[in-house]
């Protein structure tokens, strides 16, 4: 009888252990992985750059017959500051033209510009507005004329890689009373650009 009581007591004490133990089982939390971040290629637009451009210009004036259009090309160099979402810059450019101003009355010979630029950093794409001062040389009636004016414009650059960019730019120029001739010139230029970043 003593043996039976000991066996029953031992069975009663060991039964909870076989039923899962005295402690409540720990439920492991379900871990959901965070969504993968969207990859936005970033480009640091800061630094020096230089390159060339080719473009087309259309010239209108208040002078009789002094209107024309033609192709040109040149070089540019500048520096940009990438401030995160905003990019600021300064650029100098020179374009050589041989644009007939109509009826062999004259030609637009070249345009030199100093630009201030402000744009939006969209990763590999930079969209910007620009303004500045322009100097133009022309030959009218055999006389060399030159004057300064201003321009407004917009452009877009795309980074092919860390060194090379392709871009496009539209500028609207205004030259009032060109070289005291009484002629006002308005010139619109469209250019394709390639630049190397140092």
TrEMBL record:
Residues 6-198 form the Outer membrane protein beta-barrel domain. It holds the Pfam family OMP_b-brl. It is found in: Membrane. Keywords: Membrane, Signal. Transmembrane segments: none annotated. Its main location: membrane. GO terms for cellular component: membrane. Residues 1-19 form the signal peptide. Belongs to the Omp25/RopB family. This is Porin family protein. It comes from Fuscovulum blasticum DSM 2131.
